[in-house]
Amino acid sequence: MEEKRNILKNFVDKMEKLFGKSLKKLILYGSYARGDYKENSDIDIMILTSMSDDEIRDIENQVYDIAYDYQLSDNVMISVNIKNADHYNYWLGALPYYDNVEKEGVVLVG
After folding, report:
1. Region of residue 93 (left: phi > 0; alpha: psi -120 to 50; beta: else)
2. Which letter does DSSP use for residue 21 in this model?
3. Is the pTM for the entire model greater than 0.85?
4. First to last CA, the chain
5. Crossing angle of the two packed helices 2-19 and 53-74, in degrees rounded to 10
6. Angstrom distances, CA of residue 30 to CA of 38, 62, 102
7. Long-range contacts, 65-69 (Cβ 8 Å, 24+)
8. Strand, coil or helix: what is 23?
9. Is residue 1 pLDDT above 80, yes or no?
10. Which residues make Cβ contacts (< 8 Å) with residue 47, sequence separation at least 6?
């Protein structure tokens, strides 16, 4: 688990650099947030940003490439979802997926 903590910290650092001030929140959710992960569980991350949908589309491949690098080098799958923070907050309470992220999530940035 210590190795995965280091990988997660490294990933978070890279996201903070990539998104800069537009990063509003980075949330760990899923099995790692709940503590019921297995050896082959993926690490689920929700990134909330002030970027527009077009700006998110422009940057998301960089994020996915960084996440994929961990799969290749460390055999750790990081599943990332990037959303505009205002969109997320607007639909919170209406979309069960967002409610689940909010309920079980651990805020790592923001």
Report:
1. left
2. G
3. yes
4. 24
5. 150
6. 11, 23, 11
7. 66/11, 66/14, 66/15, 66/18, 67/11
8. strand
9. no
10. 15, 19, 23, 25, 26, 27, 63, 80, 81, 82, 83
